[in-house]
Amino acid sequence: MGADSPSTKKGGIPRVELPADARLDTLAVREGLPATPWGENSEALFLTSSFVHPDAATAARRFANEEEAFVYSRFSNPTVMMMERRLAALEGTEACIATSSGMSAIMLLVMGLLKSGDHVVCSRSVFGSTIKLLQGEFGKFGVQTTFVSQTDLTEWKDALRPNTRLLFAETPTNPLTEVCDVAALAEIAHGHGALLAVDNCFASPALQQPAKMGADFIIHSGTKYLDGQGRVIAGAICASTRFVDEVFTPVMRSVGMSLSPFNAWVVLKGMETLSVRMKAQTASAATLAAWLEAHPAIERVFYPGLKSHPQHELAMRQQGGQGGAVVSFIVRSDAERPDDRGRSAAFHVIDQTTICSITANLGDTKTTITHPASTSHGRLTEAQRQAAGITQGLIRVAVGLEDIEDIRADLARGLNSL
Ligand SMILES: *Cc1c(COP(=O)(O)O)cnc(C)c1O
């Protein structure tokens, strides 16, 4: 980095005093900014749009980026910075930049890195809005994307072009929990002079840290497990200081997909319990997946923690031996209604629940249940859904923190009366 690059001029904003070898669970609770002179124990919520300077010359230095200080909350705010530092610590990256949503994190990534004429290779199993953003919105501006198999590395390699700058992956995917090999994708990207971004929403840093496997950018929807209680929309990119300071912050400054300090504060406090929530929700999901797999009304279960999962071994290696909290399954179709391909059976199971929330969100302490074919994937044609494996009998459950016996009984009511 050059001697006069912005990050070397910083240092005006102090760090929390923590042992250099502090472990993840400690960083999740303690990383951020030092308390104000008032000595608050819980992090302060700075709801202010701008910051006051002691004199005009100082203001000039701060606007010229010669002195690090908080200026304007479109691109600098103490509460947002605490959230960024904490998430960077959990992901094991040097830096992080928070955004207003998971989707705007991906928008910032592409706006910062790419220009018209550049090419992206992306898994075809990623979040639906990610496909729409890359193909539709960025397609309009001349950034082309090739969509490939989540799990077939040969397809990723074959899709590379001289102008391929970015590989984009998500693992495990929604709703089929397909797992891709992050280290192998990093090798393919770097061997081609390209960069790798991984959307880490589903596993969260409590289960996997893609940066340790070679990913250059970690994308988050803070809306999911980081908040963890279904309250706010938020997003972030974790990356090196160089990319955050020199590539993404200038775009944030002029485009303004900023995270509100209030939402940042909610996510900041959510991260304190991320690890215990993920452990408990994963344990419950594993119990539920094993029970579902043995149930006569179930055709197939998708859960990385099960031996029957096609990428079980890779998932266990990559996710610290944990399958995550999302379980999907196909119910056997109603013998009397073979024409609806399992839809009425799936609706029956969903409608018989009284505890699970019927909503497409996930990452909440409340268990959520959804029928992907008619909700998150409802805009696809039936042929596109079949190709993606989103069948009419498929149900996705994102397991929360309720007693798993109650959730099991909630699902058994419908499954036992099909
Ligand atoms: C929800 C989600 C997003 C988008 O995040 P928002 O905060 O809703 O904008 C991106 N990727 C994955 C995997 C998601 O689950």
TrEMBL record:
<keyword id="KW-0028">Amino-acid biosynthesis</keyword>
<keyword id="KW-0663">Pyridoxal phosphate</keyword>
<dbReference type="InterPro" id="IPR054542">
    <property type="entry name" value="Cys_met_metab_PP"/>
</dbReference>
<dbReference type="GO" id="GO:0030170">
    <property type="term" value="F:pyridoxal phosphate binding"/>
</dbReference>
<feature type="modified residue" description="N6-(pyridoxal phosphate)lysine">
    <location>
        <position position="224"/>
    </location>
</feature>
<dbReference type="InterPro" id="IPR006234">
    <property type="entry name" value="O-succ-hSer_sulfhydrylase"/>
</dbReference>
<dbReference type="GO" id="GO:0071268">
    <property type="term" value="P:homocysteine biosynthetic process"/>
</dbReference>
<protein>
    <recommendedName>
        <fullName>O-succinylhomoserine sulfhydrylase</fullName>
        <ecNumber>2.5.1.-</ecNumber>
    </recommendedName>
</protein>
<keyword id="KW-0808">Transferase</keyword>
<dbReference type="InterPro" id="IPR015422">
    <property type="entry name" value="PyrdxlP-dep_Trfase_small"/>
</dbReference>
<comment type="similarity">
    <text>Belongs to the trans-sulfuration enzymes family. MetZ subfamily.</text>
</comment>
<dbReference type="Pfam" id="PF01053">
    <property type="entry name" value="Cys_Met_Meta_PP"/>
</dbReference>
<dbReference type="InterPro" id="IPR000277">
    <property type="entry name" value="Cys/Met-Metab_PyrdxlP-dep_enz"/>
</dbReference>
<comment type="pathway">
    <text>Amino-acid biosynthesis; L-methionine biosynthesis via de novo pathway; L-homocysteine from O-succinyl-L-homoserine: step 1/1.</text>
</comment>
<dbReference type="GO" id="GO:0071266">
    <property type="term" value="P:'de novo' L-methionine biosynthetic process"/>
</dbReference>
<comment type="function">
    <text>Catalyzes the formation of L-homocysteine from O-succinyl-L-homoserine (OSHS) and hydrogen sulfide.</text>
</comment>
<dbReference type="InterPro" id="IPR015424">
    <property type="entry name" value="PyrdxlP-dep_Trfase"/>
</dbReference>
<dbReference type="GO" id="GO:0005737">
    <property type="term" value="C:cytoplasm"/>
</dbReference>
<dbReference type="GO" id="GO:0016846">
    <property type="term" value="F:carbon-sulfur lyase activity"/>
</dbReference>
<dbReference type="InterPro" id="IPR015421">
    <property type="entry name" value="PyrdxlP-dep_Trfase_major"/>
</dbReference>
<dbReference type="GO" id="GO:0016765">
    <property type="term" value="F:transferase activity, transferring alkyl or aryl (other than methyl) groups"/>
</dbReference>
<comment type="subunit">
    <text>Homotetramer.</text>
</comment>
<dbReference type="GO" id="GO:0019346">
    <property type="term" value="P:transsulfuration"/>
</dbReference>
<keyword id="KW-0486">Methionine biosynthesis</keyword>
